[in-house]
Write a structure and sequence with these properties.
Largest sheet: none
Structural class: mainly alpha
Order of helices and strands: HHHH
Number of domains: 1
Helix content: over 70%
Number of helices: 4
């Protein structure tokens, strides 16, 4: 008799989370993963862009001023890739904690904006570094 009092007591003692809330948490995690992947892809492009310009100028016989030392663009690219990796790791960890809390009935915090603000500040810093580098070149 599954509909008896013991079935109701067993289901009442186990907290259940709303599937819609779990799906919203999953969509948020997937959005952060897309952000991390975009940062990694952009970091790769930045790291290799100086080399691309140098090879293009050699092929076309054009003179494009590209510093022989490409270390600045490589380091900026590596920083962006690592920022993307960190965004993905933090997103996965937060998702796991949020789902575990929701399934155990512990209240969750709906907004966790620190990750977005941290990434925005780091990207602004990288943008200022790139701007300073470009102004120094030109």
């Amino acid at each position: 008799m599954p509909d008896g009092p013991s079935a109701k007591t067993a289901s009442a003692s186990q907290p259940r989370s709303d599937p819609g809330t779990e799906m919203a948490a999953e969509r948020t995690m997937l959005a952060w993963i897309r952000t991390g992947l975009a940062l990694m892809g952009f970091g790769f492009v930045v790291a290799k862009f100086g080399l691309f310009l140098q090879k293009l100028s050699e092929l076309r016989g054009m003179h494009i001023h590209v510093a022989k030392n490409q270390s600045f663009s490589v380091w900026i690219g590596v920083a962006l890739v690592m920022l993307g990796v960190a965004a993905n790791v933090v997103a996965a960890a937060r998702f796991a904690v949020t789902i575990r809390r929701m399934r155990s009935g512990i209240p969750t915090h709906p907004t966790q904006w620190q990750q977005a603000v941290t990434i925005a500040v780091i990207l602004a810093g990288i943008g200022l570094l790139i701007t300073a580098y470009l102004v120094r070149l030109g």
